Structures are given as structure tokens and as C-alpha cells.
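On clarity, I found the account of how folds are encoded harder to follow than it need be. An entry of this sort, consisting of the sequence and the corresponding C-alpha cells, reads as follows:
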Amino acid sequence: MGQAKTKRNEGFSPQLIDEWEADDCVNFAVALTRTTGWLLHVDWWSTSSPGAEISVDQLKPLRVYVADNRDGIFDVRGVRTIDEFNQRTIIKIANKIGVGMGGVLTRYYDETRLPSLPLRCQPNETKVAEAMEAIKVNPAYLATIPKRPTRCIPAYDAARYTFGRCSAFAEAMYELTGLQPVALLATKFSPQFAATRRAKNGYFHSLVMHPDGMAEDAWGKASIEEIAGRFGAIEFRTSSDAHRQVIENMRRSSAEIYNEEYKKALEIIREYRTEQRAV
């Protein structure tokens, strides 16, 4: 009974949940990302073949929600792992609206991008404000969500420099802080991350190392095991040479893109990172 009561206290009223779900939770999600600083996501139904070029106009929205940089999903019905959220929520919605063969496609966005997306409902500032108030007066719910540091890189930018642009971010960190960049090379992934993209040598991420043995990427300072764990790597090694090779390959094959991402990373680090030079 005590546990059930705690669960109820962390939740929202059925009336509020019904209201938010009628708009695919877009107003709740915007309110929550403004409150917590975590990342906006949209799950879409796609009938395109895997690997095909997908136009956003061909997608059907399933749910708008907020997630952290690991496997935490923050939804109107509670805090879930990715697997729990997919089973309890996304699959049920997809089964209702899915037409023909298809699958679920997950994308993350900055809030400013939402007006250009084919959502069923766009955020309504009045409803967003009401949702923020409902979240504010439910401290038990907020307590289940990990807190981001007060001064940190915005979640959307941190996510951008997690997937595919991390090497440019690590180089920018080296330029501004003197911290040494290294590559993470996986030798073993957990089963649910077996499909994680990596190079033949196991490369999957770049970051910088602190003198105390801690590591740092766009999401901030953490143990190297914690950062590797976000990608599902359970056995890995570091290599400064492999990182240098990644940079050389990018400069050779995509110099313009690399230079643009490197320049933007410098700007973001200067603006949001408090400590600019390693001690």
C-alpha cells in the first residue's frame, strides 16, 4: 500500500494526463524541458525502408517527450526506461495509428524546431505555462528526474556533439582547456546496444581526460565508465592515436563540415563552460 501511494503521489491527475495526451504531450514536454533542461524527443511512425532518406513530411507523430542522456524517459505517465516506455506507451500508440509495414523513428530537437515539424498540435504557450505550474507543484515527480548542473551546455547542443560530432568537440576542449583528447574503442557492448555504430577498430566516441582520471564530453565531467556506459560499452580502451586519426579523416573527407562544427564547439564551450583552462 505504501509503495502504491508513493507512486500515485509522483503522478499527475488522470484529467491532466488525458488533456496532455490529447495533444501528443507536446505542451507537457515543452514545459518539462524548460523546467529540467533535458532533451526534447519526438517518436514518429515511418513507413520508409531502413536506411532510406526520410523526409519529415512522410512521418506521423506518435509522442513528444523528454529524455536524459542515458535511458531515462520523462513522460506524463511517469519516469521510465526506454524499454518500459516503448512497451507501455509507444508500441500501443503505433499499433493504433500505424498503417502498413513500418517502424518507430526517434529524433531529438531543439524547442525552436518544433514549429517546422508536422506535429498534430503545436505548443500553446498558455497550456505550456499551465503544465509548468503543474510540474512545479509536484516535487515528488521532479525528484525522480536527474538534475542537470545550473551552468551547462544546452541539451540539444550536447546531444549534437554526442552523435557524430564528438571529435570536433574534444578538439575544441583541448584548444580551450589543454585537456587531452582520446578516443574510446569498444571491445564489448551490452546486448541491447549491440547495433551501436562504431568503426572497425571499435571507435565510438571522443572525449577529453582530466588529470584526476575523470573524463569530459559535451554533457560534462563524469567517470569514463559512465560516459562509455551511455553508449552501452562495457569493455573498452582509450587511444589518443585513434582520436588523431579520426580528426585527420574528417579534415580530409569533410573539411568544411569539421571546421564549422569545431568553430561552433569553441563558441559553445566559451559561453557555457565555467572553467576554461585546465589546472
In short: Confidence is low (pLDDT under 50) at residues 1-8. The two ends are 52 Å apart (CA to CA).
